[in-house]
Amino acid sequence: MPHLKAAYAKYQNDPKVAFLLVSVDEDPKRLQRYVGEMKFPFAVARLPIEEAERTMNFDNLPATFYVDTSGIVRYQIGGFESHGDSPARIAWFIEELKTTRR
Amino acid sequence: MRVIAFALALMSPPAFAQNAAQQELERGRALWDQRLSTSAIAALERATQDPATRAAALEALGRVYTFKGWQQDNIFPGWHDEPAYRERALTTLRAAIAADPSRASAQEALRTAESFAAADHVDPAPPRAEVAALDAKIDSLRSNAGAPIAEIVSAIDARFAAQADPAPYFTGAQILIDRGEYDRAIALAERGRAASDRFIDENSAAYQMPGKLQGSYSRGRATAADLIGWALFNKKDLAGAQARLEEAERLTQGQDFANQYHLGEVARAANAPDRARTHYLDALTLTAGPPPLRARATEALRALQSGNSGAGSQPFDAWLEAEVARRREARHVAALRSLVDRPLPRLPLTALDGRPFDTRSVQGKVLLLNFFASW
What we know:
Strand order of the largest sheet of chain A: 1-2
Shape of chain A: globular
Oligomer: heterodimer
Largest sheet of chain A: 2 strands, parallel
Distance between the termini of chain A: 30 Å
Number of domains of chain A: 1
Structural class of chain B: mainly alpha
CATH architecture of the largest domain in chain B: Alpha Horseshoe
CATH topology of the largest domain in chain B: Serine Threonine Protein Phosphatase 5, Tetratricopeptide repeat
Number of helices of chain B: 16
Distance between the termini of chain B: 51 Å
Largest sheet of chain B: none
Strand content of chain B: under 5%
Helix content of chain B: 55-70%
CATH class of chain A: Alpha Beta
Number of domains of chain B: 2
């Protein structure tokens, strides 16, 4: 999560890039406390976990999707990858989608 | 069989049932101390059926549910609280008090659970004092090169008896490899593998998601396979070592530093320099790995490259840096997964205040969409 905040610092003034966090928490009190502690600078929404697993087809958390400007999912990352959850890696995916189209 | 039936006939039925219920209660408590949740709960539930043990068994169950509901976040890798148990914890502890209103320990357990229910945040439970002391003993034996092997093995057995997670076996296997006791190390790693599977079976609900559960099984089995493979390598059984280390590689999807380093060592000993080079590079491409092991992998690779006539022109450090960067890039690309190249499904999101979330603000942009849970 701190990696997402660090990566976002680079894109907060970029009108072509958006970050959206979706919580699958069952316990709204706990989520409120967590969101309060983390002070995310981007939007946080909620979705019931069964709905999220069914529509997005993941079975591990966190699950990260990179979506291009035409609404197509282009990359999907499950869980904390052992060498990947760095701001530089997040920026790598975003830059790919900003610069490539097909 | 006839002898048993005869003995049962001599006992008055209530006395027999009471004795059995008392045994179930004690067994359930002991299983819970070991954190074998499913078996503990089953034994305690049986003990609730007898009036003589009902209050004590309900209290014990209520304490298990309290722990599961509020106190098990990350106490083992991949574990989360199970909020579904919170209401059951309160109901069960109230039932314990209803069964025996004078039961002070149940009243105290209920007060604790009620305070958890009212709190914004509950800290995960610390390890039991007995377990922490036995872990400390293993640590002290590990750093004492003269410690007798029998003492090490008995410390490991004692720690496993106190809590049934596989960690003492895996630690013990590593210590015995360091002492040159390879066969005993292999035996401990085998026991660790079985213990890991059982421990995860008994606590499968704590993982919340199938991917986390599967990942935990794989981690335990990979740890055992890597330790066994490394012990076999030290015994000069290269083929056996290779088979076990490759098993660990599949289970970790090539993502474990020590395992890749071990595979590199086996390939080098087997006179397969290309394979060795690949494994050392795969290891160094991972960002994990203790610095001494990284240094050893780097030096092994340097030695291989200096014997490689084709590599001549470029200095080793620059070559290594470029190779590692190239490999990391390739792994990024391999991150392509199932929803890839498909339209993002419509998601009925709500905002934190419960109202529908308006997705227009993210449409037409490059979107990073991250699903998470605070547990």
